[in-house]
Structure formats: structure tokens, C-alpha cells
């Protein structure tokens, strides 16, 4: 018998199950793009048949980090930049869990940049949503890794001398097997992309554009949107690395100049997830490791049996 | 010269097979019925550089490397000095002979490789003169040619073992057995030939008058030769740990690799990750999801773990971290031992943060306290740290095989099953009150695991309400803080009342002078106390292993029972003495420190001397590379 009965439970999921009771109310500012991510997730999760208890959301620090305070799943709100290592270990420990990590652009592309590269490289089977509003919000408006060059803030008063990071291209180079960009003001597309990302078997990275009406009023990232999959102007094969790279370059070049492309950029269904690779080389058990602790039939190996080499 | 023990030193360059040769020789001595203790000295480089391993063997318990040694096998360093291959690594000259003579005891034996140690070198150090003055017995042997003639030059370590065995009139049986276990085919054959050839040359062609022989001994039970790293890894396995994440750093790497090599066969998972912040964060994530997990590092890497350590404390995620100290600050001396990360480990991380810290003093304690660390961590949902050093990590001693014949203890402590969760407190929205402070016993609020029915909650590094929502409510803050703080007190109570003390006492209970130490200096202190008492002094010792929560009562009783006490530790700033005074709030006038921080562990003679200098009340300094830090007011 499984020790985790909520996992794989088959029943009709009520749409409201992912919403906690009256408390706590989101502390995000009116008009914040983070509401859009929350809403899309609440819509996507019941549609893919996940119960709240088999989902683990792991967040970083910042406005985005509060996502799982307002989403009724198992949650782990970690520390600045560290959501990914915590999340991927939880998945390695219990492969049956649906693990979704989330954080902001400062959190995920700045302080957590190293973890982002390596999680994508290893292709952990999980979803990673980055709330990209091109600004540090909760610390009140400092330049972030995605802020455009020349962006003025209290910490870069003469305008940032740095070229912004290219999250999509970086993700592709690092090895993520599902890469998409969506936007809070595009709820229908966002929901569909989140569903796909969760169901994708590998590291699914969503760069989620979220407007910050308080600290980043000048950002021009919000209109107009063009869905690269819907438009005849952008015909490319999402399974083709080179074509995906070309499209990413294009949108990352023009992001701050008016036209924003959203949609799926790269989908590689053939690359096995890290868990599968690790199991294939014999470095990971086929059954979820966490189950072992509840299984009375497991015979625990002892160090005593290793002593032969020491005698 | 004490003839009841053999201390054999094999010296040469890193990469010359010094380690594997000594490991096998130590095992052969153990199999012949002796107790052994190995000490490894090596530089931070892959090939070349001066390196040696000492094996002390006696027909009684040996707790330290001893003082000096009585048999030198100087191999030379082919990598630094082999002109044929035009290989020259580094720029220092390797002098396996000259660099090792200072500690060789009177009457000792020297075997050196004529093939690699030149005549000029021998003349330059006045070997003949010094040998006469110290009654050394010198045997120049062309081990290099001997090895080359029967196999490969690198096998000259085998020739050296053959010569050693012959000079000590030692049976080759155990050595042969171990060689057969370790290799096969042509390599084994060549090595056996070399071994016998070297042995025969000595027995047939040499007359020797030294009286050093391998002591005779026997063991009543089967013995195993293990390092501190082995013991910690095995303690973790038996505690049910099946997840480890790490980043390589000396000397922590040993524990990491031992577990990485064993976990695949045990259904466990090992992850080598991008940095130490990630490593500790992975252990937190795996533990949160329901697996007994650990991580670890050495000083600099552990510094990076400060953040996830605090996260584990605040989210009450059980976790074991390993801190293998080496000399600092910064990257310091990577391959040299020091006990100078104590304050770092006790106080790192922000806020009123608390963790459990154990400092084992020998191989058995390393195993025992690692098991204990896992038990406490999972029962109390608190990080537990094992702090040890490069010395304990690398030294090998023999332990009764039966000592390890224990039942594994994989249970997840205060983790609820789904049946238990049904009965547990929930709030109106149906969320589980995982951080409930109302019915908490000993500060512990039982936890649920992701995927369990009825256990939903939020774990956050922010202050939080009973279901885990971020909260800055003053009443909740105080209630949560108080509950978490209650854990350490409860753990101390449990350790004092329900468990055997992990502190170690030695010497005569009625003695009026005390020596107090911690961690891997324990063995040398124990031996020094034995020697002092044999010489008519009256000294007792205490080695403390619980660093946090501190065993206030036990240490107070010990210090109250003596007139004066000397605190022995391997660092320059008397960190453990500082902890004693902070925890006990007194005894400033009673405590003197004996400190050593030159990269080498204490030898018993240095502690004996420190005691004498301190007691003699004279205005003189110890002669060795140690420092006395006087008592407050002195």
C-alpha cells in the first residue's frame, strides 16, 4: 500500500480546491501580473487532474515567492534563489510528486542563475515558472537581470550599463527540453502552456511576463502580443533547435521595443528526463525513494555487510 | 626506544603508491594480531611533493600516532626525479630521507632507496655521523632496480615492504594474502617476485643487530581497519540515510565518495551538484519529501551552507550535515588538520538559530554519533551537524567487527502516517496544523510529507502560523520561537537522562588536575594522561563531544572536581575554551589552553610537556610547536 494516498488519486477535482479559505489574501499590488500566474495555475491544475496534495510548489523569495501562500497545494517557500535545488531534490526523493518551482527574474536569473543552468542541463522532470517583470519588486524597484540596458533605478541611477539576460536562449543552451514564454495578460495561452509544461517529461521552463504597475511603469513589454504559434508570420518548427534559437533571438532582441512574442519556443519530447537517465545507469531506484520508508517489506542494508573489505 | 611498538613510516612522493602500500601493510599487521593506528601526511597536489604514512602497531590499544617513529622506509620520488622519463613535477626537491629524520627515535631503522636517493644527498645530511650518534641502523637498498628487474619501477614499494618484513623477521603470509586480494595476473606475479626477492636478499645477505621486531599479539575477535570517514558513512547507512548531495572538497570528499559508491546498491541517491548552497538545499528538499538525507563539506564549502542550514531550522526540516575541518582561514591548508571551525559551525546562519553539533573523538564515536545525529534530527526536526577534522577523516584504526553488528534504524521520527494525520489538528480550510504550538511536546510539532492525504501545509523560511502561512503576528512569533527554542533544552534533557553520555572520561577519578579536549585530539590526550599517571602524576581527562546542546552539568562537575584544567585543541584562538566559558559562565581562572595550529596533530609528548610547563609555574615556553594561553588573571 502506498504511503502517499493522495498521489494518483482518481476523482473529480473541484476547481476551487487549489484556492485556500479566506486567509491569506494576496499582498500583491492592485494590477500586479502575479495574479495572472496564480489564476492560470488554478485553472490548469484541475484540468490535468492533479489533486492538491500530489502537487508540491517550491518558491523563492520576492513577490513571486508568495505564490504558494495563495495556492492550496503542498508548498515550500524557500530562500532567495534556491527554489530549484530544493525542488529537484524533492522530485528525486519522491518521483510521484508533481513538482513546480517558481520565482522571479532576480531570484531565478540572478542569485539563482547557477541553479537554473544546472537544473536545465540535467533536465529534471519538473516545471519552472519565472515571473519576469524586469524589476526587483519586493525590495522596491532595483534593476534586475532582465531590466533593459539604460534602465534607471536607485541602485543604477545613471541607467544600467548591463545588457539584459536572455532567459530563453540561455535555457536552450543549458539544455531545458521545454521552453515557452507567456504573459499574465494572456490568460488562455498561459493556462495551456502551464498544462503542457507540467505534462512534459523533463525540465519545462516558462518565462512568464508579469507587469509590475508599481515599480516598472515604463516597461513596454505588455503590448502588443503576438502568439508565435497563431501567427502566419512566424512559421517555425518548435522541435528544431536551430529554428527555436533563431526565434528566441528575434524576440529577445525586440522585447523592449514594442512587439512581444509569446508561445512555445522549444519542445523536445525525445530527450529522457534526468530521473530516467539516472535510473538507466543504475544510480536511482525505480520506485519512489520516499516510499521505502513506509514499506515494511524492505530489508535495509547494513554497513556490517560492507566490512569484508576492511578485514 | 620502546620496543613494544612498531611505528613504521613510509615516505616518498604523492602518486608513488604510498597510500595503498601502507593500507595493506597496516592490514597485515592487524591480521597478525596487533592494534594499529595510521597517520597520513600529504601535500595538496596530485603527484610529487613530500608525503608519508605512519603505521603504529602494538599489542595493546593505540589511540594516536605516538611520538616519533622507529622505522623509516624512504622510497624517493620517481615522478620528481626520474630523468629517464623527463618528468619533473613541481620545483621543490623531494628528500624522503632528510625530511623525515628529525622524528626518528634512537635505535631506529632506516631503509632508503639507493636507486633514487643519490650519494651526494646522503653525504649532504651527514647520515653516517647522525646514525652513529642516534644508534640508527641504516640499510641502503637499490629498490628501484630490484623492482625494475622483476616488473615495473613503481613496484619498489613492494620491495620496500619485503625488506621491512625481513628486517623485522615478520611472516609474509598476511602480506601475500592481501596482495592476492588486491591484484591479479602478471601484476600480482611480479609483485610477489619482488616481495620475495627483497625478503631473501635481506635474510641471506645481511647481518643485523637491531632489536626492533614486530610485536606479537592476538585478537580475540575479528577486526576491521577503518577510517573516520568510513565510520561516518557507515553510521549514516545504518541510520537509514539514502540521499546525499555534495560538492567535492578535501577532506569531506571521503564521506561523499564512500556513500556515492555504496548507495546504488542500496536504492539510495547521490548527487554531485553545482555548489555547496545547492548541495545543502537538495538535502533539505529530499528530507522535506520524506527521505533521510544529508550533505556536508569542509570549512569554505560549509560557509555556503549557512543559508540552507537556517532554512532547515526555520522550516523544521530534519537534516544531517557533515563538517570536515581543515586548516583555515579561507582555503587555508587543504590537507592539514585543524579544529578551528567550531565557532563557524556553532553560530553560522542568521537569527536565533540553533542546531545540534556532535564532535566525535575516534572511529567508534564517529559511527555512533552519526547514528545519533540522524535519530535526534528526525525526532526533533532540527539540523544536526557532525564536526570532525582531516585527522579523524584519514586515520585508520582497527575496530571489533562485532561493533557494527547493529540493526538499522531507518524510521522517520516525528513524521505522521496518513492514519495519524486524520486525527491531527487542521484549520477551517482543511490545512494541517503542521507547526502547531499548542500540543507540542519537547518543542516538536509532528510533520506530514508531500503526497500524504490530509497533510497539506506551507513550509516557509519566513516566520509562519501553525499551517505555515507567513505571519508577523507578535503572539504567534513568540509562541513559535519559544517552541523551537524548547527543542535544544529537550534534547539536552534526553541526552542526559535517557541516553548514555557521549563524553569520554579517562584517568583517575580522584585526580586534582584535569585535561579537557574535544574531537580528534582525544586519542593523544588519553595517551598523554596514561603516561603522566605512569610517571607518578595525578591527572584525569574529559573529552567533550556534545558541542550543542552543551553538556553543562557533566562539564561543570568535571571542572569543579579539579584545581586546574588544561584545554587541549588544534587551533590558535582557543575556540573550545571560549565555548566552555560561554556555556558555564565561570572557571576562567582554572583554565589554561594548550594550542597547536601548525598543520600537524598533537603528539602525546607535546601534551605531557604542556602539562609540565604549565604546572611547573616557570616562565618558560614549551619547546614544541605549541602555545600556552594562560588562565584569566595569570
From TrEMBL, chain A:
InterPro entries assigned? 2-oxoacid:Fd_oxidoreductase (IPR051457), OFOB (IPR011896), THDP-binding (IPR029061), TPP_enzyme_TPP-bd (IPR011766)
Q: Which GO terms describe its molecular function?
A: oxidoreductase activity, acting on the aldehyde or oxo group of donors, iron-sulfur protein as acceptor; thiamine pyrophosphate binding
Provide this UniProt record's keywords sorted from A to Z. Oxidoreductase
Q: Does the keyword Oxidoreductase apply?
A: yes
User: Where are the annotated segments for Disordered?
Assistant: 140-166
A GO BP entry: cellular respiration
Q: Which cofactor does it need?
A: [4Fe-4S] cluster
Q: Where's the Thiamine pyrophosphate enzyme TPP-binding domain?
A: 61-208
NCBIfam families documented for this protein: PorB_KorB
This protein's name: 2-ketoglutarate ferredoxin oxidoreductase subunit beta
Q: Which organism is it from?
A: Natrinema versiforme
Highest lineage ranks of the organism?
Archaea, Methanobacteriati, Methanobacteriota, Stenosarchaea group, Halobacteria
Automatic annotation (TrEMBL), chain B:
The UniProt entry's coiled-coil ranges are none
Q: What is its EC number?
A: 1.2.7.3
* Organism of this sequence: Natrinema versiforme
> Which GO terms label this protein's molecular function in UniProt?
2-oxoglutarate synthase activity
Q: Where is the Pyruvate flavodoxin/ferredoxin oxidoreductase pyrimidine binding domain?
A: 235-481
Query: Region labeled Disordered — which residues?
Result: 405-474
GO BP annotations listed:
organic acid metabolic process; response to oxidative stress; sulfur compound biosynthetic process
InterPro entries reported in the protein's UniProt record: 2-oxoacid/accept_OxRdtase_asu, PFOR_II, Pyruvate:ferred/Flavod_OxRd, Pyrv/ketoisovalerate_OxRed_cat, Pyrv_Fd/Flavodoxin_OxRdtase_N, Pyrv_flavodox_OxRed_cen, THDP-binding, Transketo_C/PFOR_II
Q: Which reaction does it catalyse?
A: 2 oxidized [2Fe-2S]-[ferredoxin] + 2-oxoglutarate + CoA = succinyl-CoA + 2 reduced [2Fe-2S]-[ferredoxin] + CO2 + H(+)
What is the protein name given in its UniProt record?
A: 2-oxoglutarate synthase subunit KorA
Q: Which PANTHER family match?
A: 2-OXOGLUTARATE OXIDOREDUCTASE SUBUNIT KORA, PYRUVATE-FLAVODOXIN OXIDOREDUCTASE-RELATED
Residue ranges under compositional bias (Basic and acidic residues)? 422-440
The record places domain Pyruvate:ferredoxin oxidoreductase core at 511-586
The superkingdom listed in its UniProt entry is Archaea
Report if keyword Nucleotide-binding is assigned.
Answer: no
How it assembles, according to the record, is:
Heterotetramer of the KorA, KorB, KorC and KorD subunits.
Pfam annotation, one family = PFOR_II
Amino acid at each position: 500500500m502506498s504511503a502517499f494516498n493522495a498521489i494518483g488519486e482518481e476523482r473529480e477535482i473541484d476547481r476551487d480546491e487549489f484556492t485556500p479559505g479566506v486567509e491569506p489574501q494576496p499582498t500583491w499590488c492592485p494590477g500586479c501580473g502575479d495574479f495572472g500566474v496564480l489564476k492560470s495555475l488554478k485553472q490548469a491544475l484541475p484540468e490535468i487532474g492533479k489533486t492538491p496534495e500530489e502537487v508540491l510548489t517550491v518558491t523563492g523569495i520576492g513577490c513571486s515567492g508568495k505564490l504558494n501562500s495563495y495556492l492550496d497545494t503542498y508548498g515550500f517557500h524557500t530562500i532567495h534563489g534556491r527554489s530549484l535545488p530544493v525542488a529537484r531534490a524533492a522530485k528525486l526523493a519522491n518521483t510521484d510528486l508533481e513538482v513546480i518551482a517558481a520565482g522571479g527574474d532576480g531570484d531565478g536569473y540572478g542569485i539563482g542563475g547557477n541553479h537554473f543552468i544546472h537544473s536545465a542541463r540535467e533536465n529534471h522532470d519538473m516545471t519552472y515558472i519565472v515571473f519576469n517583470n524586469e524589476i526587483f519588486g519586493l525590495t522596491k524597484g532595483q534593476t534586475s537581470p532582465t531590466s533593459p540596458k539604460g534602465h534607471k533605478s536607485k541602485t543604477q541611477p545613471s541607467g544600467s550599463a548591463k545588457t539584459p539576460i536572455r532567459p530563453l536562449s540561455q535555457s536552450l543552451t543549458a539544455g531545458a527540453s521545454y521552453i515557452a514564454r507567456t504573459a499574465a495578460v494572456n490568460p488562455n495561452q498561459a493556462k495551456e502552456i502551464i498544462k503542457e509544461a507540467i505534462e512534459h517529461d523533463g525540465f519545462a521552463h516558462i518565462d512568464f511576463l508579469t507587469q509590475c504597475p508599481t515599480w516598472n511603469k515604463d516597461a513596454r513589454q505588455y503590448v502588443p502580443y503576438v502568439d508565435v504559434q497563431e501567427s502566419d508570420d512566424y512559421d517555425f518548427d518548435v522541435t528544431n533547435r536551430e529554428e527555436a534559437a533563431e526565434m528566441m533571438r528575434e524576440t529577445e532582441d525586440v522585447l523592449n521595443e514594442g512587439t512581444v512574442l509569446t508561445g512555445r519556443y522549444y519542445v523536445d519530447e525525445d530527450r529522457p528526463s534526468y530521473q530516467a537517465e539516472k535510473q538507466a545507469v543504475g544510480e536511482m531506484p525505480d520506485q519512489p525513494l520516499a516510499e521505502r520508508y513506509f514499506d515494511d517489506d524492505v530489508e535495509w542494508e547494513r554497513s556490517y555487510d560492507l566490512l569484508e573489505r576492511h578485514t | 626506544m620502546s620496543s613494544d611498538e612498531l611505528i613504521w613510516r613510509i615516505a616518498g612522493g604523492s602518486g608513488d603508491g604510498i597510500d595503498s602500500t601502507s593500507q595493506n601493510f597496516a592490514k597485515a599487521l592487524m591480521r597478525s594480531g596487533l592494534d594499529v593506528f595510521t597517520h597520513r601526511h600529504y601535500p595538496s597536489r596530485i603527484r610529487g611533493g613530500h608525503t608519508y604514512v605512519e603505521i603504529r602497531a602494538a599489542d595493546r590499544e593505540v589511540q594516536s600516532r605516538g611520538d616519533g617513529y622507529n622505522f623509516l622506509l624512504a622510497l624517493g620520488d620517481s615522478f620528481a626525479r626520474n630523468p629517464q622519463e623527463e618528468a619533473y613535477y613541481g620545483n621543490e626537491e623531494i628528500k624522503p630521507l632528510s625530511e623525515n629524520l628529525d622524528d626518528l627515535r634512537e635505535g631506529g631503522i632506516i631503509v632508503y632507496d639507493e636507486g633514487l636517493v643519490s650519494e651526494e644527498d646522503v653525504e649532504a645530511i651527514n647520515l653516517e655521523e647522525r646514525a652513529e650518534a642516534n644508534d640508527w641502523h641504516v640499510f641502503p637498498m637499490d629498490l628501484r632496480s630490484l623492482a625494475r628487474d622483476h616488473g615495473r619501477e613503481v613496484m619498489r614499494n613492494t620491495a620496500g615492504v619485503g625488506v621491512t618484513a625481513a628486517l623485522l623477521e615478520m611472516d609474509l603470509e598476511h602480506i601475500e594474502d592481501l596482495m592476492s586480494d588486491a591484484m591479479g595476473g602478471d601484476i600480482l606475479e611480479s609483485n610477489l617476485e619482488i616481495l620475495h626477492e627483497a625478503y631473501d636478499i635481506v635474510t641471506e645477505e645481511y647481518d643485523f643487530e637491531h632489536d626492533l621486531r614486530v610485536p606479537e599479539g592476538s585478537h580475540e575477535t575479528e577486526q576491521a581497519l577503518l577510517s573516520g570517514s568510513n565510520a561516518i558513512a557507515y553510521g549514516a547507512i545504518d541510520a537509514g540515510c539514502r540521499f546525499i548531495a555534495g560538492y567535492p572538497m578535501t577532506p569531506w570528499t571521503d564521506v561523499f565518495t564512500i556513500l556515492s559508491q555504496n548507495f546504488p546498491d542500496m536504492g539510495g541517491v547521490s548527487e554531485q551538484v553545482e555548489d555547496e548552497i545547492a548541495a545543502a538545499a537538495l538535502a533539505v528538499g529530499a528530507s522535506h519529501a520524506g527521505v533521510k538525507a544529508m550533505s556536508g563539506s569542509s570549512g569554505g564549502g560549509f560557509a555556503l551552507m549557512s543559508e540552507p542550514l537556517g532554512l532547515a531550522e526555520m522550516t523544521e526540516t530534519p537534516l544531517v550535515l557533515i563538517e570536515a575541518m581543515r586548516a583555515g582561514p579561507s582555503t587555508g591548508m587543504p590537507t592539514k588538520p585543524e579544529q578551528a571551525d567550531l565557532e563557524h559551525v556553532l553560530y553560522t546562519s542568521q537569527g536565533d538559530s540553533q542546531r545540534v553539533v556532535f564532535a566525535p573523538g575516534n572511529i567508534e564515536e564517529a559511527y555512533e554519533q552519526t547514528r545519533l545525529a540522524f535519530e535526534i534530527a528526525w525526532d526533533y526536526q532540527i539540523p544536526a551537524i557532525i564536526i570532525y577534522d582531516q585527522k579523524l577523516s584519514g586515520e585508520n584504526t582497527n575496530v571489533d567487527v562485532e561493533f557494527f553488528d547493529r540493526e538499522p534504524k531507518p524510521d522517520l521520527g516525528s513524521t505522521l502516517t496518513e492514519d495519524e494525520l486524520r486525527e491531527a489538528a487542521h484549520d477551517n480550510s482543511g490545512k494541517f496544523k503542521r507547526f502547531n504550538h499548542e500540543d507540542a511536546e519537547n518543542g516538536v510539532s509532528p510533520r506530514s510529507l508531500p503526497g500524504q492525504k490530509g497533510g497539506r501545509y506551507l513550509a516557509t523560511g519566513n516566520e509562519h502560523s501553525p499551517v505555515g502561512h507567513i505571519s508577523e503576528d507578535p503572539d504567534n512569533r513568540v509562541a513559535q520561537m519559544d517552541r523551537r527554542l524548547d527543542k535544544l533544552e529537550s534534547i539536552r534533557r534526553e541526552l542526559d537522562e535517557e541516553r548514555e553520555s557521549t563524553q569520554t572520561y579517562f584517568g583517575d577519578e580522584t585526580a586534582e588536575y584535569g585535561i579537557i579536549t574535544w574531537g580528534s585530539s582525544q586519542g593523544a590526550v588519553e595517551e598523554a594522561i596514561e603516561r603522566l599517571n605512569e610517571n607518578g602524576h595525578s591527572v584525569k581527562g574529559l573529552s567533550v563531544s556534545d558541542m550543542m546542546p552543551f553538556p553543562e552539568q557533566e562539564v561543570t562537575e568535571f571542572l569543579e572536581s579539579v584545581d586546574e584544567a588544561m584545554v587541549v585543541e588544534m587551533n590558535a584562538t582557543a575556540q573550545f575554551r571560549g565555548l566552555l566559558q560561554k556555556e558555564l559562565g565561570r572557571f576562567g581562572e582554572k583554565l589554561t589552553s594548550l594550542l597547536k595550529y601548525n598543520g600537524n596533530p598533537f603528539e602525546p609528548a607535546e601534551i605531557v610537556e604542556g602539562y609540565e610547563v604549565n604546572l611547573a609555574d616557570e616562565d618558560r615556553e614549551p619547546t614544541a610547536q605549541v602555545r600556552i594561553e594562560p588562565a584569566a588573571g595569570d
